[in-house]
Write a structure and sequence with these properties.
Elements (H helix, E strand, L loop, with lengths): L4 H9 L20 E5 L3 H14 L7 E5 L6 E2 L5 E3 L7 H11 L3 E5 L5 H8 L5 E6 L1 H4 L8 H9 L3 E4 L2 H9 L7 E3 L14 H11 L4 E7 L4 H14 L4 E6 L5 H10 L4 E3 L11 E3 L6 H7 L2 E4 L11 H4 L4 E4 L7 H9 L3 E3 L3 H11 L2 H15 L1 H21 L1
Parallel strand pairs: 1-2, 1-5, 2-4, 5-6, 6-7, 7-8, 9-10, 9-13, 10-12, 11-12, 13-14, 14-15
Antiparallel strand pairs: 3-4
Helix pairs in contact: 3-4, 8-11, 9-14
């Protein structure tokens, strides 16, 4: 499709380069075929790096160059993933970037479309895919002149993988053929899976045996009194109940432990030993163990959500722990809402509700029901990963064919 008058005027207005010769300071490209991935932000870059690492178990013969205006230059130790300053601002610089890396395909992850980059890429025959595309992000806010180039820019992509049904319908109205549009969901729906030392987990599981547990992740001093009252109330129903507290900042662990002791709970710091049968609370003051606690505890209150915000809820939900949370869910409000709408979490309004909810969740049938609903939500992100893997395979097949 021919470019529009609006696009030509836009490109003329961007004739000034960055002042840097793109390619001159770039790392030497690897011998493997290179796939170019453009990200909206650092969060997307982190997600795509995880996807790449998962894929390279099967696709060891492909390398990646990742670009994005907010990214810092970096190269993985094995040279297979390069985060680049490119591709430049005008057609000349972008073309130099492409000639340097010689990518066999482009995967553009959602967000706004840079007309100069897409126009330059259109001059090369490698396949191009727009993924996790939200139609609301496609047009820069307040730039209605962009409408005149929209149809051309979308035509450059072989396929458009939309974030939702509404976006897919709009992309079709904007000229993308129906058989070249599909819905795959949001790229950041991929659940962040925290690692775990399996030997440590097995050892701790043997220590606690069949004791019921609940976990507070991201615990903060401002909420410790609410947590204490919830634990006191739940212990009336289950006298062997063990509370595990993971502080937001491990330096606050002694303070949190002291509060629990003052409240009458026998408490131990993780760094000082294992809980005994009479221990009522453990404060986990060792870094890097949160993934283990999520796997061990069937219930997790996301600390901070009653006062100031917390961690990504999929961390716990993806590992089978039922998420209990208050109303303060930024910056992960969308993910908490997904769980709530599916019945995959236990939302609470205040500290009093926390106590009752923990008591209710001591019922294994209820926790199993909620955990199953949460799994349906968190596993959707795997579909995005699988689809990206399929795109990579398609790009490689086309390059070899």
């Amino acid at each position: 499709m021919a470019s529009s008058l609006f696009l030509n005027l836009y490109l003329l207005a961007r004739t000034c380069g960055s002042g840097e010769v793109i390619g001159a300071n770039e790392p030497t490209p690897p011998s493997q075929p290179v796939i170019w991935v453009h990200c909206r932000n650092t969060a997307d870059a982190d997600h795509i790096r995880r996807v790449m690492r998962q894929m390279q178990d099967d696709l060891e013969q492909v390398a990646f160059v990742v670009t994005g205006s907010s990214l810092d230059t970096d190269t993985s130790p094995d040279g297979m993933i390069t985060v680049s300053k490119g591709p430049g601002r005008n057609l000349r610089d972008i073309s130099r970037f492409i000639e340097h890396w010689k990518p066999i395909g482009l995967v553009w992850i959602g967000g706004q479309i840079d007309p100069a980059i897409i126009t330059a890429a259109d001059r090369y025959s490698f396949p191009k895919y727009l993924i996790a595309a939200d139609a609301n992000d496609f047009i820069p806010e307040g730039r209605k002149w962009f409408f005149g180039m929209r149809r051309y820019l979308l035509s450059v992509f072989d396929d458009v993988l939309a974030a939702d049904k509404s976006s897919a319908e709009r992309f079709r109205r904007w000229g993308v053929a129906s058989d070249h549009v599909e819905v795959i969901g949001h790229f950041d729906d991929q659940a962040p899976v925290l690692s775990c030392n399996d030997a440590e987990r097995a050892d701790f599981a043997r220590t606690i045996d069949t004791r019921p547990i609940w976990l507070v992740a991201n615990a903060i001093p401002a909420e410790i009194n609410l947590i204490i009252e919830a634990h006191r109330s739940a212990c009336r129903r289950s006298h062997r109940l063990l509370l595990i507290v993971v502080p937001q900042d491990t330096r606050q662990a002694p303070e949190l432990a002291a509060k629990l002791i003052d409240a009458g709970f026998e408490t131990v710091l993780r760094s000082e030993g294992d809980p005994t049968e009479t221990t009522r609370a453990l404060v986990a003051d060792l870094d890097g163990e949160l993934g283990m606690w999520y796997r061990i505890s069937p219930i997790t209150y996301m600390g901070g959500t009653l006062t100031r915000g917390s961690r990504h809820p999929f961390e716990a939900a993806a590992l089978g722990s039922v998420v209990v949370h208050g109303p303060t869910t930024a910056p992960y409000a969308r993910f908490y809402m997904q769980l709530d709408n599916a019945g995959g979490a236990a939302p609470i309004a205040n500290g009093a509700a926390l106590a009752k909810t923990i008591e209710d969740l001591l019922s294994p049938d209820l926790t199993a029901q909620i955990a199953h609903a949460a799994w349906d939500v968190t596993s959707r992100g795997a579909e995005v990963t699988n689809r990206i893997a399929a795109l990579i395979s398609t790009i490689l097949d086309k390059a070899e064919g």
